[in-house]
Amino acid sequence: MAKQLYNQPSPLETRIVSKNFAIEGSETLDVYLANDGYKAFRKAQQMTPEAIIEEVKTSGLRGRGGAGFPTGLKWSFVPRNSPKPRVIVVNADESEPGTCKDRLLMEYDPHQMIEGILIAGLAVDAHKGYIYIRGEYRYLIDAMDRAIDEAYAKGYLGNSVAGTGFQFDLCTHSGAGAYECGEETALLDSIEGKRGIPRMKPPFPAVAGAWALPTLLNNVETFSAIPPIIRDGGAAFAALGTPKNGGTRLVCISGHVNKPGVYELPLGFPMMKAINEVAGGIPGGKKLKAVVPGGSSCPILRAEECDIPMDYDTLAKVGSMLGSGGMVVLDESTDMVRFALRIMKFYAHESCGWCIPCREGTTWLKKILQRFYEGQGRREDISLLGELSKNMLGRTFCALGDAAALPTISIVEKFTEDFEVYLARQEVLV
Amino acid sequence: MTFSPQLEERFAKMLTRYPEGRTRSAVVPMLMYAQDEVGAVTKELIEEVARRCRVTPLQVDEVVGYYSMLHRKPQGKFHVQVCTNISCLLVGGEELYEHAKKKLGVGHKQTTADGQFSLEEVECMGACSWAPAVEINYDFHHFVTPEKLDQLIDGLRKAQ
């Protein structure tokens, strides 16, 4: 019997980081080694650290956690010659609503990520790594622990990785339920045993991160993309995408589609093709209303704005983001007031309370949206929602305030008619 | 306070993983694992974790209120977590949560009188493409319908 995957692969995919997913036993080291495993590490071992970083830069890889920062550039910021030891931290706190891809990378191909971490270790001369996994993913913490134990037992972690003399230690670290800890500096506070509160930048984590040590911090998918990049060359990876938007990425399609799932698509893949062909279109012949392109923090797009290629720069041009790859599809029946309220309930719940514009802003936005949803809305609330949100922008330590404000601004501006429907209904009742 | 041998082994290892003098780092994971065995983050557990991690009890206490998975009171033997965030909302997550409330006869963060089940409306748990999703303790369930949820709950009840 074939391996049961979370969703059927699509023939339109370009499977690079997910190439081993369907292979029986893909989570074991032996199967990984039989499928190109550790070829990249051995190659990287023969390269200078500068050459490794250059290869990553050539690949055009940009952080897959949400911010989309060029990975090679981030690696080059870590001071290799610092008298302090460097550490690597993997952000596996996947919690952006709409995003469910890192789960698969850890469940189906944990050794690919470990190899990516080891190559990063060579690049920045780090010998210790921590995988910060959200507490809800206990089964994945266990899965990563098993993979790490196997790697130690077979000599792929520890004193001499793959017999090369390179020493590296790796472990998992459990979170305990906090969206905020996906923000890199809050994650660092959390890993130090504190409440996850964002830090002032600079200093950036590359210089003073976990325990004030120079820290290389990337998302699960970013590390998982490193072995194919080093193995087949940065140029080959870059060529899969569009200029400045190298390679492929896992796109998590959810909401109103016939075949929701996680699909690996090249950067620049047409959004409408992803919805209609990869994800099988909208059920019941309904029309598309809107798309959240990259997780709940991203400004929403109206249906007519969605005929675009999915790459970082195009999304920026239309005023949104590719984010963490969580694409949520909304059909014409969706009530945008209810949708906006659910988003704000989430951010109000997750705001850590450190910055007042975010703590108070999310709470008040939630109250206004709740009032509107319950039929007590006022005409001036529509502009108040937008105004309040705009006042949060750029006034917080971390991006959570913006993440709450941006989708709200876009929903109020682009779907004012949905708010009008509520007001009209109230007038009838009066 | 002592834990099971497996947990003691885990904690011994855990405390060696962080840089010299940084045992405070083990506070959150230690609370997570210990809570599963003890049933809740009790005052005694806070003091024990503080002693092991060489911090003050207050430094442990202050993180308990921050992390949503740490709880001071025991939950049901089966903790039913229903996601109603956007991807789940669009395909019936909120209706599923309402159904769960009726089925179990309890509300958000409440426990049934027999202590078997507790319910929580949770934020995104990373199952968006297989929504609506429910997590019972640490087990994920995907594409959950009200009927499927009934079967799950009845099955757990019978197994008692």
Structure overview:
The complex is a heterodimer of chains A (about 425) and B (about 160). By secondary structure, chain A is α/β, with parallel strands linked by helices. Helix content of chain A is about 45%, strand content about 15%. Chain A is built from 17 helices and eleven strands. In chain A, the strands form three sheets. A five-stranded mixed sheet of chain A has the order 6-5-11-8-9, with helices on one face. Chain A has a four-stranded parallel sheet with strand order 3-2-1-4, with helices on both faces. In chain A, a hairpin with an 8-residue loop joins strand 8 and strand 9 (about 300). In chain A, helix 13 runs antiparallel to helix 16. The radius of gyration of chain A is 22 Å and the shape is globular. Chain B has about 160 residues and is of the alpha+beta class. Chain B is about 45% helix and about 10% strand. Chain B contains seven helices and five strands; from the N terminus they run H-H-H-H-E-H-H-E-E-E-E-H. Chain B has helices at about 5-15, 25-40, 45-55, 55-65, 85-90, 95-105, 145-160, and strands at about 80-85, 110, 115-120, 135, 140. Chain B has a five-stranded mixed sheet with strand order 2-3-1-4-5, with helices on one face. In chain B, helix 2 (about 25-40) packs antiparallel against helix 3 and helix 3 crosses helix 4 (about 55-65). The longest helix of chain B is centred in the last third of the chain and has 13 residues, at about 145-160. Chain B is elongated, with a radius of gyration of 18 Å. The two termini of chain B are about 30 Å apart. At the A-B interface, strand 3, strand 5, strand 11 and helix 13 of A face helix 2, helix 4 and helix 5 of B.
